Structures are given as structure tokens and as C-alpha cells.
Amino acid sequence: MQLTREQFELIAPLLPRQRGNVLLENLQVLNAIFCVAANGCKWRALPSHYGCWHTIYTRMSRWAKAGVLDAVFERLQRERLMRVRIEAVSLDSTIIKVHPDGTGALKKTLPKPSARAGAAGLPNFIWLPRVPATL
User: Fold this and answer.
1) Residue 21 neighbours by CB under 8 Å, 6+ apart
2) Can you tell me the distance from the alpha carbon of 118 to that of 121, in angstroms, rounded to the nearest whole number?
3) pTM: predicted TM-score of the whole model, two decimal places
4) Spatial distance between the Cα atoms of 33 and 50, rounded to a whole number of angstroms
5) Residue 38: half-sphere exposure toward Cβ, Cα within 13 Å
6) Which residue has the higher pLDDT, 112 or 31?
7) Domain presence at residue 10
8) Is-contact 15 72, C-beta < 8 A?
9) Closest Cα to residue 38, out of 69, 90, 82?
10) Domain limits at 63?
11) What is the three-class DSSP state of 97?
12) Residue 84 domain-assigned (yes or no)
């Protein structure tokens, strides 16, 4: 999945204008994004000929938040330049926190006052002396 310069010229108006001292062209960034999408690799594993992975990721993140990537993908499909279909579902149980009640753990109960000697405070009853009935 690589865009040629001619294909890029058709979608170039959708991309933000580059200002300042920019090392990577938008075409190079788009091709890097397509490489990650096609191969499913991590950003850090992006081949070095695309440029610094962090720069590419930052620009992709900004474009995604601004809706630029959606417009680019839509134009690519409408012009039949590239078929873009990205489907991914990923669940990692190490980041999904489950409440202890959901795992079948025993619920914590308050200890009974008799379980801890002296912790209950003063007794709640009165001692009455017993008098034998035979006097």
C-alpha cells in the first residue's frame, strides 16, 4: 500500500498545509501510516526509511482528531485509488480492570466484636448478681 506522487496530488488539497521547517512530506507520512495499517506493526517497528516514528505518529494523531484521515480514506476509495479497509479488534486483559466482586472473590465483612478482644469497647450488657432462691 503505497501512494504514488500522481495519486497523492489528487488528495493533497485535503491535507493541512505544511508550515515551517518540516522534515517529512505529507506523502511520506501517508505511506508510513499505510505501512503500519497494512502490516499491523508497532509504531516503533516502522522502517527507518519513512522517518522518525514519533513524528509520523504525532502527525497521524493530529490528523485523526481533526477528521483529515477520514476525508483522505474516503477520497481514496471514491477515486478508486486504493482500497482501504481497516478492521481491528484488540482486547488485552492486563488493562481491563474488573471489580473483585466480578471475579468471584469473597466479599469483605466486618469482623464481629467478639473476634477481637478489647476492641469492642465497654460491654453492652449489665451483670446482675444471682441470688439463690432458697433463703
Assistant:
1) none
2) 6
3) 0.58
4) 10
5) 12
6) 31
7) yes
8) yes
9) 82
10) 5-78
11) coil
12) no
What pLDDT, on the 0 to 100 scale, is given for residue 5? 87
Joined grid coordinates for residue 48: 527507518
Residue found under cell 467478639: 114
The torsion of the CA quartet 130, 131, 132, 135, rounded to 10 degrees, works out to 180
Give 44-86 pLDDT, tens digit per residue: 888 888 888 998 999 999 999 999 888 888 888 887 877 656 5
Q: How many domains does the chain have?
A: 1
Three-state secondary structure call for residue 87: coil
Which amino acid does the sequence have at 132?
P
Judge whether 70 and 60 are in contact, CB under 8 Å: no
In a domain, 105, yes or no: no
Give a yes or no: residue 94 inside a domain.
no
Rg (CA), the chain: 34
One-letter amino acid for residue 59 of the chain: R
- A 10 A CB-CB count for 80 gives 7
Taking the alpha carbons at both ends of the chain, their separation in whole angstroms is 108
